[in-house]
Amino acid sequence: ATVLDQAFKELGGMPVVHEGIRFTAPDIAENGAVVPITIEVDAELLPNVSEVYVLVEKNPNPMAAAFYVADDTDVYVKTRVKVAQTCDLFAVAEAEGKLFMQSKETKVTLGGCGG
Questions:
Q1: 44-66 b/e with 16+ CB inside 10 Å = b?
Q2: How many angstroms separate the CA atoms of 84 and 93, rounded?
Q3: How many H helices and E strands in the chain?
Q4: Per DSSP, what are the bridge partners of residue 29?
Q5: Which end of the chain has the least Cβ crowding within 10 Å, N or C?
Q6: pLDDT tens, the chain, 115 aa long
Q7: Strand pairing class (21-24; 35-41)
Q8: In whole angstroms, what is the distance from residue 29 CA to residue 83 CA?
Q9: CA 27 to chain centre
Q10: How far apart are CA 11 and CA 98, in angstroms?
């Protein structure tokens, strides 16, 4: 997928915002090539998460990362992604065949995958 809507469609549709997902990303990323993010899922509010995705709205390829979650595992993902330019980042969790998300705008001041 080369645009965000297409990436969501390939995942199974537009996710619904869910309070059980805690998504942390910086307000301003000084270097878009290494933007730190953290995703935590509260298993009591959103049980049975099987996959977690990170999408970056304005990247040439929005799907930045995919993680598969073993049964009965607490979801905690900490990684770095490339962000081409100022845009929204999305943390998407799949649970029982449904998609849920949180998003965060991050401003990029240097670098990114666009140069």
A1: eebeebeebbbbbbbbeebbbbe
A2: 23
A3: 1, 9
A4: 108
A5: C
A6: 889 999 999 999 999 999 999 999 999 998 999 999 999 999 999 999 999 999 999 999 999 999 999 999 999 999 999 998 999 999 999 999 999 999 999 999 865 554 4
A7: antiparallel
A8: 9
A9: 15
A10: 10
Intra-chain end-to-end CA distance of the chain, in Å: 21
Name residue, tokens 């977690």.
52
Within its chain, how far is the Cα of 74 from the centroid? 17
Q: Taking phi first (over 0 means left), then psi (-120 to 50 degrees means alpha), and beta for anything else, what does residue 44 get?
A: alpha
Q: How far apart are CA 108 and CA 29, in angstroms?
A: 5
> Could you tell me the pTM of the whole model?
0.92
Nearest-angstrom CA–CA distance, 70 and 4: 27
Q: How far is CA 15 from CA 29, 80, 98, 107, 108, in A?
A: 25, 22, 8, 23, 25
